[in-house]
Design brief:
By secondary structure, the chain is mostly helical. The chain is built from four helices and no strands.
Length: 127
């Protein structure tokens, strides 16, 4: 690991934190960030940056990459439900976690595509 890779990983983590904060704020209309809620967002972002690429890359050799992407999205929905949504005042926990995850993943894919087209950068993979 060199310094540039670590810096890119840190920037990616900060972007993912901002995206999940925004998506949760849009869904819950609650923009307050208590310290415990900030730690929950950090935990979900760490899972997104480190665990989801590992799960997605497992099926790459077997031709199951689309299935593994779906599985990692479902895993993300469950993590968002039991970690982030616990602190939000929303009427339906599961629906909110699905929408937060969908908005978050969508925004992250858009940001990654823009970064790739403008700067030739992609989000770092931990595998």
């Amino acid at each position: 690991m060199d310094f540039v890779w670590i810096l890119l990983l840190a920037v990616t983590l900060l972007i993912v934190i901002a995206v999940f904060y925004l998506s949760a704020g849009v869904v819950s209309q609650d923009w307050a960030a208590t310290p415990s809620y900030a730690l929950r967002i950090l935990f979900v972002s760490l899972i997104f940056v480190f665990v989801v690429p590992i799960v997605s890359d497992i099926g790459r050799d077997e031709g199951l990459s689309n299935f593994m992407l779906l599985l990692s999205f479902v895993f993300l929905v469950v993590v968002v439900r039991f970690v982030m949504v616990e602190e939000l005042a929303v009427p339906d926990d599961w629906l909110s976690s699905m929408v937060i995850s969908l908005i978050g993943v969508g925004l992250i894919f858009v940001i990654e595509e823009v970064a790739d087209r403008l700067f030739g950068l992609s989000m770092p993979s931990v595998v």
